[in-house]
User: Fold this.
Amino acid sequence: MTRLLASPRVQLVLRLLLGAFFVYASLDKIASPAAFARIIYQWQVAGPLPSNLVAVTLPWVELTAGLMLILGVWRREAALVVALLLVVFLAAAGSVLARGIDVTNCGCFSVAKEAADPGWPPAWARGVGWFLVVRNLLMLAVALSLALVRPALARAAGRATGVPQPEAANAGRAGGTA
Assistant:
């Protein structure tokens, strides 16, 4: 599995998909910070002041991390930022679910009160529920794989240029050579 995740093409596809997801998710929130703040406050995880602060800053962090993933700039760091965001989202969703709070719009993509098409998304995909948790867990797995698995070309380039690789450095120390 690590070999598949280390494939440069797989890494590119994962980077582009995850980056596009976060860029798209940020756009409506950036356009309507007051509406996003109301949604955050509805989660009952933070008071009005922290909700407003999160509503103003979080979308820009999502946009920046998403663009960095798409462009391949500091991709590992951007993937770690996305992973951290997802852990926070998962903790907040777990809190909402455990307390039985009915959040009809999670604020993930749209801050509108009513969807234009009430048939889409389906009821099981709206609000804070198990679909949101599973989706975020899958994205967390993708973000962690992007952050922790080096592309195969990077490992091969390191060997070709003589830059020591972590496994080679550790093997040298185990053998007693300095």
Summary: The chain has eight helices and no strands. The longest helix spans residues 75-99.
